[in-house]
Amino acid sequence: MDTPSIPNELIEALRTARHVAVLTGAGVSAESGIPTFRDAMTGLWARYSPEELATPEAFRRNPRLVWEWYASRRQMVTTAQPNPGHFALAALEALVPQFTLITQNVDGLHRRAGSADPIELHGNLMRARCSVEGTVYTSWTEGETVPPLCPVCGALLRPDIVWFGETLPPEALARANEAAKSCDLFLSIGTSGVVEPAASLPRIAYNRGASLALINLDVTTSTGPRSYYLKARSGVVLPALVSAAFPKAG
Ligand code: BV8
Question: For residue 169, how far is its CA from the centre of ligand 1 (angstroms)?
């Protein structure tokens, strides 16, 4: 797929923006070889729908199965590398006066690409937490039991992930809403815009007068008042957009 030419108005909006807010979804990590959320059910997991596995009920019903699903995704992420789309967003942070990166992704690739402070709305695969006390762990002993047990109280550890039916981390959601309300350019990249409340952020920004760009493989490329829909691969169009807006940045 060739990348559509990027509208000059969008390049100008990025070059002159005071506050750029970005929401990313699985499509940004797809170019690092990580299946998008709805494609994630490949192989062993083809039998289950994500919504069946990514819920507290699924964990209560079959903690081992859910833990192993996340362990397999963690393994995939550990061997993946950030791609040019991640690096372009990390570079953009230093080129605009104010920048807020909001991600639905749980793979940690934005931080590995150099983004300073991604707002992780849905948690992070590389963390686990005690299912009773809530204590968060970045390392644990695998092996004896699956899932592993909390070293303090002995309860099951669970992925530090926001499952369907669970509330998002209040502070992260508040920061994301604040950025959507105060930005003058909102870029929504690589997300199907299905999952709430993240899916409302682009609309909040647009309704507050921000310019809005949607970049994914589902939209039909088009330009409207303050809105730019680009059917394009994030790993190609993001570097092109950043270098078009900030040519001296190299
Ligand atoms: C909650 C972690 C409130 C798990 C995930 C209205 C308001 C509030 C809630 C709801 C509501 N309506 C429905 C709900 C319930 C639910 C929901 O939204 N359900 C959906 C299915 C309708 N929401 C919730 O449950 C949320 N909780 O609101 O709590 C509450 C709670 C209790 C009591 C009262 C109120 C919690 C949602 C979080 C769920 N957890 N992730 C895990 O990852 O295992 S969400 C999951 O889907 C992923 O994390 C991901 O973030 C999300 C969306 O997926 P996408 O990132 O968009 O990926 P997808 O595959 O869908 O699309 C990929 C896109 O990329 C496509 O557009 C494609 O074209 C594009 N693409 C592909 N390749 C490329 C590309 N683009 C560019 N370049 C490429 N190369």
Answer: 15
